[in-house]
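ok so heres the complex, four chains, lmk if somethin looks off
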Amino acid sequence: MTIKQIAQQAGVSVASVSNVINGNYHKVSAETRKKIEKIISETGYTPNAVARSLATQESKIISMVIPYIGEYFSFNANPYYSELIAEVEKYVRAQDYCLMIRCVDRCSDIVHMLSSWNVDGAIFAGASASEIGDLRNSLKCPSVFIDSYCEKEGVVCVGIDDYRGGYLSARHLLNNGHRKIAFAAPSFGSEGVIYERFRGFTDACREYGVEIGEKDIFEVDAVESNSIVAGNDIALSAEKFTAVGVTSDLTACGIMRGISQCGLSVPKDISVIGFDDLSLCTISSPRLTTISQDIQMKARRAGDLLFTMIREKCELTSNEKIAVKLVERDSVARAEQ
Amino acid sequence: MTIKQIAQQAGVSVASVSNVINGNYHKVSAETRKKIEKIISETGYTPNAVARSLATQESKIISMVIPYIGEYFSFNANPYYSELIAEVEKYVRAQDYCLMIRCVDRCSDIVHMLSSWNVDGAIFAGASASEIGDLRNSLKCPSVFIDSYCEKEGVVCVGIDDYRGGYLSARHLLNNGHRKIAFAAPSFGSEGVIYERFRGFTDACREYGVEIGEKDIFEVDAVESNSIVAGNDIALSAEKFTAVGVTSDLTACGIMRGISQCGLSVPKDISVIGFDDLSLCTISSPRLTTISQDIQMKARRAGDLLFTMIREKCELTSNEKIAVKLVERDSVARAEQ
DNA sequence: TGTGGTTAGTTAAACGATTTACCAATCTTG
DNA sequence: CAAGATTGGTAAATCGTTTAACTAACCACA
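and the predicted structre for the whole thing:
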């Protein structure tokens, strides 16, 4: 079923049909409009999106680009990503756009696909500042970067207040009397989400006269077995930690398990605080105390900014940081004197 | 950058450029082929997918259609879906196709979008037999249905051996001496994944002379608070259950929490067995004994069948059931005498 | 030498929409 | 009533590809 056939059946030109489809009602009389609409609804005709896209150079497609590392898909390894994708999908669908999803090694892998499909906008998760720099030259469509730190003119980032999150996390442990504190995170450089959480964490510690040194930092990625090993290490460390701050809930759960394996109890012997507030926090045992981030808000702000750029055809520069908060559950206890 | 410009620069016709792009090398001499390829790589030209799709009536797009109920996205509420999506994305990308994702109320919501984008194939998750029936008339592209039970000619289903899973689940409890057994599942009719698991479960019980009656069945959806309530109900029931079989790991975790809340211990007082074998099984406490399904295999088989239909331009009828197996962890113990 | 078969290439018609430019009829208005 | 504006509509170009049909040159062979 094509627009041509509709036009034929209605005895009008394709231009008229196109006009009623696109709501250019001032160009067509009420009478012919009725006639055309009748036939459209009778036949169940829908305009072909591909042809439309070719003609308009737009597509009503938004692409979401997710990093993955080695074997592990971020959104498989870490439920944070699936919650994020779910929220983005919801937003995009509400705008009557389609969502294309793609995992990539390097963000630049995607630029051809984006222009090739006339993609109207892209949302990148977890791109580094340098990747964004490379992207800026090649990328044609409006984009927003979730969980990135980048101050460049013309780039839109949406994230959370990671520094504050790290700070609140440590302060909660300190307020509970802990002084022997470990920090567990994936490897990080001197920028980005994890680095900011680390800065906040150490700054809070310093305020209480506690220094986080190299021996207090445990490097651990999202792979579950690795986080269990980290839990073992923390439990058995000569440092006799009474608490550990972790940069993701998933890892925190693994660490709790690793600690239990060594015969110590959470939170009685060692307190654990996570980050993200995923739904698994209430499933774990003990339920995980954590820093809560509002994933839905993140997706919504990213969507708002993206669609502003698309609709107003403008460039924006933004670095939104959404507030975080402490959610107390059962994995942090007062340190024994 | 268009094919026209490439042709101009190379001093040949667009047809020749098109032929080298598409590997119709017999139609172009080695010499001009070199010339064209040189210019293509110099300019970094990529053919426009939209125009190509319009011309070929294909798109290299696969669509994945996910059900959601009310507020809850399946793949948000249940990590099973995100693992499935991750595997499908991987498969589709390996074939050099794009993946469009869409959550729907009713499967029929998607047919317009599929034809409008010339989508080459679709993967539906969790569609009911009647929905598939409706779809068959309107659907233009090859499709495979994951987790559906449908015997109709020309429909391709890929699932797991749910009956066997239910059977193994109950048998494991029975072999551990349990006789007061509860069954927790979302509401189900007389067909589909949950019903099959139920059949297997009750059949095994019957072999041991145990009847699962209405008072032994607890209806519970994926919402976490509901599963905790179910856990409470099971713990406090006058039936004095010593074990419960659950049709999803996520719900099983909530039920374990609900049981603990009532002061009972898993598995000491009540054993719990899940279904799916998601990664969260190893972070729950106790680690969840469950029926393991191979999600990667499921995605791969679905992909294989789908791409066979796409490439061979043929219709298939299939009802593959992938084997499941019991994975013993710590949430099932022997019943006390 | 005429016929037929390759080979290498071009031209132009699709694909299914949008949109600009144009036209004819009718209405306003001084 | 003539000029101009408005209304309702059409024809045709365009978007960037693929591909069928065609051509011209060359070669082989009876």
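quick notes: Chain A has a mean pLDDT of 94. thats all i got rn
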